[in-house]
Amino acid sequence: MMHKYLIGNWKMNKTLQEAMDCIQYLLPQLEAIKDAIHSINLNLVIAPSFVHLWPIKELIQHHTLIQLAAQNCHHEIQGAFTGEVSAAMLASVDVKYVIIGHSERRIYQKETNDLLASKVKKVLAAGMSPILCCGENIEQRNTGEHKTAIYHQLKGGLVDLTLQEVQKLLVAYEPVWAIGTGQVASLEVITEMHDFIREILLEQYGMIGEKIPILYGGSCNAKNIAAILNGSNVNGGLIGGASLQVNHFMEMINNIT
Ligand code: PGA
Question: With a 6 A CB cut-off, is 228 part of the ligand 1 pocket?
């Protein structure tokens, strides 16, 4: 059975104490349903701020139910890049996944596909899994350019990967108009776009493309998550706002296990 993923992207939220309180509250509740979590091969991942990765790693180190993701990393291996964090630094604090090319970074930090392609390579070289995000904006959808936009983001962000590297890759489809708006994509749109992404991955990587998890993100919540995860070629959810409150995140987990 293919793994399913629920990844909480905390973005720039929570102080250290708040982040620790959330994890401490979550852990016993996850332990209590661990058989259900294992029975559906659910991978639970939290992406806190960089500065909270290490203290959270210490909290979760004796638990196998939850893993760490980072929200970004730098595209160079190391060097004179003041204020940046490298892939190797993240791997050294037990980060397993790195979100690459979230639309907020594409928009506010002007991250380009070329830059993201080199980030993907650095994450892989450091032994972690990149989660490459793609998603059309509202203009692209309204003008029927949504598939072209996704095609270019995927082709541009996934460059020169070996088939071995591809096995560690995850892709997230996050339409920009659905992020943080409460306007979740319809099941028809999610199916159409995930099937399209699967076609691209199959065309590029052959049968290995069948195994690359494709996550949906954009206004997921406890009410809609089960139906979304039931969709064809939907292998998980990337959750922003609804992951911030532990009770709500726990409700989501309960609704899919
Ligand atoms: P949202 O964010 O769940 O708050 O819409 C999703 C994301 O940005 O990954």
Answer: no
What CATH code is carried by the domain that includes residue 52? 3.20.20.70
pLDDT in tens, 123-150: 999 999 999 999 999 999 999 999 999 9
The answer to whether 174 is a known catalytic residue is yes
Question: One-letter amino acid identity for 56?
Answer: I
Residue 103 to residue 134: CA distance in whole angstroms: 7
Domain that holds residue 179: 4-256
236: β partners: 5, 215
Domain count of the fold of the chain: 1
Kindly give the residue spans of alpha helices, DSSP state H, lying in the chain: 16-32, 34-39, 53-60, 87-92, 103-108, 113-125, 138-142, 146-157, 163-166, 187-205, 225-229, 246-256
Q: Which of 147, 139, 59, 142 is nearest to 107 (CA)?
A: 139
Cα 153 to averaged position of ligand 1 atoms, centre (Å): 18
Indicate whether residue 213 lines ligand 1 (CB < 6 A): no
Q: How confident is the model at residue 88 (pLDDT cuts 50, 70, 90)?
A: very high
Kindly state the average pLDDT of the residues 104-127.
98
